[in-house]
Amino acid sequence: MKPTGYKTRRLWVVDTELLDATFAALADPTRRAILARLAAGEATVTELAEPFEMSQPAISKHLRVLERAGLVSRGRDAQRRPCRLEARPLRDATAWLATYRDYWVESYQRLDVLLDELQSVDRTGTARRPAGPDGTGE
Q1: Is 70 left (phi over 0), alpha (psi -120 to 50) or beta?
Q2: Of residues 40, 39, 28, 106, the one with CA closest to residue 64
Q3: Between the CA of residue 110 and those of 107, 116, 121, what are the distances in Å?
Q4: Which of 25, 28, 33, 96 could lock onto 69 through a cystine, CB 3.0 to 4.6 A?
């Protein structure tokens, strides 16, 4: 049986296949533009195809990729089949990326401490103690 997820330091990723599909879908600029359009509200395939120099079948292929990633759903409204944005996979991807943002923030904080220590060494090469909470070097 294939595991359904894994645990990182700060995040439980429930469905790695969905996360992979989300990033694969976001890799294409046309699909990102479609998502940006759907963020403004639902639209039909015809409406989504208007700004692009490609056929409706080509747009439909992009929509299928977005649907497989869970980023888009299609409904029924009489004769229309409007597409709508499903934001949960984007939230999951953002949460996954946040763990790496935290890593880099911590790394930069450690670098800042190191730079402060290096700057506290005066020109004669003797180390000065960093200022304590009271502002003295003690």
Answers
A1: left
A2: 28
A3: 5, 10, 17
A4: 25
The CA–CA distances, whole Å, from 34 to 30, 45, 50, 81, 134 equal: 6, 10, 11, 16, 56
Tens of pLDDT, residue by residue over 7-51, are 555 555 457 888 999 999 999 999 999 999 999 999 999 999 999
Helices (H) and strands (E) in the chain, counts: 5, 4
| pLDDT tens, position by position, 39-89 | 999 999 999 999 999 998 999 999 999 999 999 999 887 778 899 999 999
* Residue type present at position 120: S
pTM of the model: 0.66
Q: Which residue's entry shows tokens 């995040």?
A: 11
Q: At what angle do helices 29-39 and 16-26 cross, to 10 degrees?
A: 100
5, 12 in Cβ contact below 8 A?
yes
